[in-house]
């Protein structure tokens, strides 16, 4: 029997321990939810959205982060159906749905008749993980971006985002928010780059981190320098630093058709552990 939204409720600070137990079933794949749970303690004031919990009896068994990103966590088909049923009764608030492909497929099957038409559906995104330093040489010129370099880094971040997502992060008044996000990552020591003479040759950021893993985003190489091995060597440096100073596992996900990026990540030691999907609005 398919459960309804009655099995779903909004979680709060008193649910943090139970939520982290759900996340811990696969802490690397669930690093985003792990990070958001820890940093906000599921307080809506800091979450900027909601965390939904799906229960079987009195046990919390699945989660769904509901904000700019709709992210199912350890979500069975029944949980996804319940999350989708609840989401159809709310105005769409997410610009993306992202997570393990099986869960995203069930969510979208329940939402596609009531939510806006997607701008893009990316069903095949290998989820990659490494827990060891790369066998190739690191790029010794890749290092943490300094606050003084943030202004130089910012245009490369905009270029990467626009190329990857298909829309500039600065549209609809998003410039200040996106610049603040870039500066925040720089300030945390989560931004890595190789900058020469005011030119960003390579860059990447840690998007989120937990005691178990961190997730890389925004990998970018200057278009005129692609195909020269900068991505692989740069990622080797990022991985080595992350493993040493941030988390014991490093993850990311990439579009299956991006063969050049996948080859660079493989050289940097990444291996596929799952398949993610992203639906973009």
TrEMBL record:
Residues 144-281 form the N-acetyltransferase domain. It comes from the Bacteria. GO terms for molecular function: acyltransferase activity, transferring groups other than amino-acyl groups. Pfam families: Acetyltransf_1, DUF4081. Gene3D superfamilies: 3.40.630.30. This is N-acetyltransferase domain-containing protein.
């Amino acid at each position: 029997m398919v459960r309804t939204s009655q099995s779903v409720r909004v979680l709060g600070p008193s649910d943090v321990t139970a939520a982290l137990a759900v996340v811990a079933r696969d802490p690397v794949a669930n690093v985003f939810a792990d990070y958001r749970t820890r940093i906000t303690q599921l307080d809506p004031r800091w979450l900027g959205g909601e965390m939904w919990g799906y229960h079987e009896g009195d046990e919390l068994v699945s989660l769904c982060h509901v904000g700019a990103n709709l992210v199912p966590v350890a979500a069975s088909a029944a949980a996804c159906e319940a999350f989708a049923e609840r989401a159809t009764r709310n105005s769409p608030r997410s610009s993306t749905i992202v997570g393990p492909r099986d869960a995203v497929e069930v969510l979208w099957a329940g939402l596609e008749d009531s939510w806006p038409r997607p701008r893009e559906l990316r069903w095949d995104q290998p989820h990659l993980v490494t827990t060891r330093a790369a066998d190739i040489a690191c790029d010794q010129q890749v290092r943490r971006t300094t606050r003084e370099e943030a202004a130089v880094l910012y245009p490369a971040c905009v270029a990467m985002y626009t190329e990857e997502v298909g829309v500039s992060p600065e549209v609809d008044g998003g410039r200040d928010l996106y610049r603040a996000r870039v500066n925040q990552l720089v300030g945390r020591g989560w931004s890595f780059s190789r900058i020469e003479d005011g030119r960003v040759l390579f860059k990447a950021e840690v998007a989120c981190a937990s005691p178990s893993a961190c997730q890389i985003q925004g990998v970018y190489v200057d278009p005129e320098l692609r195909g020269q091995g900068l991505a692989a060597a740069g990622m080797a440096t990022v991985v080595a630093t992350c493993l040493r100073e941030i988390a014991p596992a490093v993850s990311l996900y990439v579009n299956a058709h991006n063969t050049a990026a996948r080859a660079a990540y493989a050289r940097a030691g990444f291996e596929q552990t799952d398949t993610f999907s992203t639906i973009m609005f």
